[in-house]
Amino acid sequence: MKRIKIILGIIIAIAVIFLSTGLIFKETKYTTQVSINKPIEEVFSMFNNSEKIGNWIPELKSIEAIDEKPGKTGSTYKMVVTSRDGQEITLQEKVMAYVPNEKVTLYFDAGNMLKTDDYTFSFENGVTTITNNSICKSNSYLLSCTFPYFKSVLKGQDQGYLNNFKSFIESGKN
Which end of the chain is more exposed for a tag (fewer CB within 10 A), N or C? Predict the structure, then answer.
């Protein structure tokens, strides 16, 4: 009986810690960055070319414009990606800010996962640097409790995409 109480106590403690995570951390933030040996105009143009995105985001199955606005800000797109287990996930991307050769801010709505990617572009000594400040949150309380525990996975995936982009644009096969 004593063992059952101890095990039950441990399970309750873990559940309380997990559920309190959502109260403490309302959103998960992280930064990724890559430096590319190309001019900023070329990098920015290629990065925002929707026909080329599949070259560095291998999970992307399709992207289509829902509502394209002049100047890009406010434009929305439907994206279909394939998850690791082969399921198709549909998400909506909205361009929140678009300043040529300086920044692009994208907001993704994938049901319960809401993500903002704020990309800034800078150029110095022949090298363009892309810095991405990401914020993940959720409408679902339970899902929001998990994000802090998966921060390194989310960050690793975004860093991988930036590294893939660097390889793609520097290869000259664009």
Answer: N
Per-residue pLDDT tens digits for 22-72: 767 778 899 999 999 999 999 999 999 988 998 999 999 999 999 989 889
* Residues linked to residue 60 through DSSP beta bridges, in sequence order: 81
Read off the CATH number of the domain in which 143 is found: 3.30.530
Would you say residue 61 lies in a domain? Answer: no
The structural domain count of the chain equals 1
- CB burial of residue 39 (10 Å; 0-12, 13-18, 19+): middle
Gap between the Cα atoms of 71 and 59, Å rounded: 27
